Amino acid sequence: MDHEADVFYRELPKVELHAHLNGSVSFQTIEKLLKRKPHLNIEHSMTAIGKGQRRTLDECFQVFKVIHQLVDTEEDILMVAIDVIKEFAADGVKYLELRSTPRAEKKTGLTKKGYIETVIKAIQQCKNEGVDIDVRFLVAIDRRNGTEVAMETVELAEEFMLSSHGVVVGLDLSGDPTVGHGRDLLPALQRAKNCGLKLSLHLSEVQSQLEETDLLLNLPPDRIGHGTFMHPEVGGSQSVVDKVIKNNIPLELCLTSNVKGQTVLNYSKHHFKYWYQLGHPSVICTDDKGVFCTDLSQEYQLAASTFGLSREAVWTLSQQAIDCIFAPEAVKQQLRQKWTELHSQLFK
Ligand SMILES: CNc1ncnc2c1ncn2[C@@H]1O[C@H](COP(=O)(O)O)[C@@H](O)[C@H]1O
Ligand SMILES: [Zn+2]
């Protein structure tokens, strides 16, 4: 980790809605994976982007390929998922939506179905151990894999939505934004929506995707990841902004991810400012806490210090994230209750 966040931000109860499993693997867990697979000759410097370092988004995607080499059995996935869940819990996250791309690996016999089952098993195991966090799962589509794989992924997600007792709640569209086009994925996304899966889509993470964003907004998605280049000031358009506002689609905003991935020049230029000033639902998230060496407390603290938010404003921000979760209304009520209980402790 680059810094330790102040106590207030760690104790602040938080909701994390945008976390890719394999991007969230901590230094300590990477250490364990390196010991399991010394023959790969992978070093820490290949799996994370440290303090003050920046990479192009393209280079970030190389990092994921390295991590995927390290996480290629059910055993690895189980360990990684349990570690990641416990780390979020230790950081004060009370509700977490993890997302991950089911992968099959011929070498190890890993199947996509086994992948999803293992993540669900990890979630169940943490629950049985009494870890103080409610975890849900979004099955991810990697956009580079095209139409057919997207449709298969939706079918799998649908199956697990029906059998996982509420753990699988939705679908994520992610992957290298410069590869593939949303139009080819539209039928799969439409199908997901029709069968009751919630949709969180990475949109306009890079510039010049306005046409795709405009098209996919017609679904409409239930949440947007990043949305960095949607507003007119950065080459977006007012009509796209109007669609987002009209449909009241919350944004998942990941400050450090965008700064380290160089799609945003610096923290003060982050589009959090634009959407927050509009009063539009904006949720602070980590994206890839392992790769970008951050955690959710730190992201809240960075937002507060960069944009001059008071502690009460930070509290409200974390509380309003509850409105944006994909789990049902009863879960939202429980979380609101929890926030109310914790408020007096934090502001005594
Ligand atoms: C930095 N901005 C980003 N933009 C788009 N997709 C991203 C991403 N960060 C992560 N992913 C997606 O998540 C995968 C790794 O986790 P999982 O193997 O699925 O658990 C990456 O391969 C990519 O598809
Ligand atoms: Zn992401």
Model description:
The chain is globular. Strand 5, helix 8 and strand 6 form a beta-alpha-beta unit. Helix 4 packs parallel to helix 5 (112-128) and helix 6 packs parallel to helix 7 (186-194). With 348 residues, the chain is α/β, with parallel strands linked by helices. The chain starts with 6 loop residues before the first helix and ends with a helix. An eight-stranded parallel β-sheet has the order 1-2-3-4-5-6-7-8. The protein has 14 helices and eight strands. The chain has one domain: Metal-dependent hydrolases (TIM Barrel, Alpha-Beta Barrel), CATH 3.20.20.140. It binds N6-methyladenosine-5'-monophosphate and zinc ion (ZN). Residues 18, 20, 174, 202, 225, 287 line the site of zinc ion. Belongs to the metallo-dependent hydrolases superfamily. Adenosine and AMP deaminases family. Monomer. Residues 13-338 form the Adenosine deaminase domain.
Can you give keywords for this protein?
14 helices; binds zinc ion; TIM Barrel; 45% helix; 8 strands; binds N6-methyladenosine-5'-monophosphate; single chain; eight-stranded parallel sheet; 348 residues; alpha/beta
Mean pLDDT: 97
Strand order of the largest sheet: 1-2-3-4-5-6-7-8
Please state the CA-atom Rg, rounded to the nearest Å: 19 Å
The CATH topology is what?
TIM Barrel
Full CATH superfamily name: Metal-dependent hydrolases
Q: Please, how many domains?
A: 1
Query: What does the largest sheet look like?
Result: 8 strands, parallel
- What portion of the residues fall into strands of 2 or more residues? 5-15%
Described by the principal axes of the CA atoms, the overall outline is globular
Based on the coordinates given, report the CATH architecture.
Alpha-Beta Barrel
Q: What is the name of the CATH class?
A: Alpha Beta
Number of helices: 14
Oligomer: single chain
Listing every helix as H and every strand as E from the N terminus to the C terminus, the arrangement reads HEHHHEHEHEHEHEHEHHEHHH
Distance between the termini: 29 Å
Low-confidence stretches: none
Total strands:
8
